[in-house]
Structures are given as C-alpha cells and as structure tokens.
Amino acid sequence: MHPLRRLAAHSDSLHQFEPVQSSWVASRGEFKVLGRWFEKKTPSGPQPSEAGFTGPRVPRHSHGWGVLRKRLQSEAGLRIIDVGYTSPANINYLTSLGQSVFLADLVGDASNSDWTTGVDEDGKPIWNVQGFLDHALSFSGRTFDVVLLWTALDYLPEPLVAPVVAHLHASMNPGGQVFALCHTRTKGEETVYCRFHLTPTDDIEVQLAQPFPIQRAFTNRSIEKLFAGWSGHKQFLAKDSVSEVIMTR
Description:
Blueprint: E1 5-7, H1 28-38, E2 54-61, H2 63-74, E3 79-83, H3 88-96, E4 100-104, H4 106-112, E5 116-119, E6 125-127, H5 129-136, E7 144-150, H6 152-155, H7 158-170, E8 172-183, E9 194-198, E10 203-208, H8 220-226, E11 232-236, E12 242-248
Parallel strand pairs: 3-4, 3-7, 7-8
Antiparallel strand pairs: 1-4, 2-10, 5-6, 8-12, 9-10, 11-12
C-alpha cells in the first residue's frame, strides 16, 4: 500500500493495514524515561504491546493540541495528514469528528530507504529529494486543512527538512494549519523518538517508537525562518524542552 493512505471519514470504513513490526524491544528503564520526562508514574506489571511501539502511553498536557482540538470539534469534513506510524487511536478519534485522515510516515520512510544517489565533488551525499517527496507525500492533487507533523522535522535528514515544509505549504488550503513539536536541545532523555496519540482532552499520549536518532533542535528564530511565507504562527512553551507551534498557511 502507498505510504500516503486515505481513510474514509467514518470509522466503520477504515482500511486494513499490514504494520511492520519493530525489532526494538525497550527495557523497563527505557519505559521510565517517559515517566521521568513527564513526571508521571509508569504502570506496573506487564506492559501493553502494539505493533510499531513499545511500552505504555504516557499523558502529556498539550496547549497546542487543546487549541487545534477546538477547531476539529467545530469543523467537520477537514482533510488531515497524521504523520508517523499508524495510530488507530488517532484514526478513530479524528474520523469520529467527521474528518478524513491520511497517513504519512516521513521519518520511517526517510530512515528505512536510501534516498542518496551518490556524492558530490566535496564528498557530501546527493539526495533524491523529489523522489522522497513523490514517495512519501504524493497527494494526487488533494489539498489539506491540518497536518499533525509532531516531531518529524527533528528527525529528518537535513536535505529533506525545508523541501518537506515547502511541499506542505503548497499542498494546504488557505487557513490550513500545521501542528509541530520541536525539540529545543539534542541531548537528554526527552529526545527519544516517540509516537503521539490524540485524546478528547488537552492531553496527548506519548509512546516510545523506533529509535531514530534526533538530527537537530530548533530555536524560535529557526522555526520562523523555516516557515517563512506562512501567514502566522502560535508558539506554546513547555517544561520538557519540547516547544509546540501551530503554523497557519
């Protein structure tokens, strides 16, 4: 199935997926990373298992999600891209609001395939950027209203970051919004790669995923520079070295 997958706007019409099992098995100590990060207790006893994820889901308060959720609850019929490994919780919640959901696993696609075509005269890799965009973000002329980008920009190879943002800008309707989480540092337990699951509250649930290495941290200025040309943004600071931003097309 193509990496960008459409899901019908009603939960009883969802497509079936064949998820790729992750070979990474986390230890209890790695589960505790999330507990310390969000100052929550991790569950005791056997941990739930989901394809592509490891360990429990840990609640994290999200001001940005709280703002975006109000829009999704008041406007039905939106087209939404959820970036990351398939989250049934996100699919079920968004389709229950009457939204159409599309999936794109940008970090997985960038990390699990070789998108280089050689090296230049300085020995630096030459990236097939257009090939990656055509593979991971082929919209067939569709335009979108919301992109749940999460932390994908922090883990993508550098040559793909600006082209992904430009491609999203060109593929969104006026007033469309991108919700992104951006690390403010590249070291520390909070830099582990995670999947984010939506809830009907102002919390999102965080779960360890494949161990992709973080590539960069963002400052306010670097976020504004990357999204130059967008009409506006709201930024929400958090205590876990992960800032949240809603960029408006």
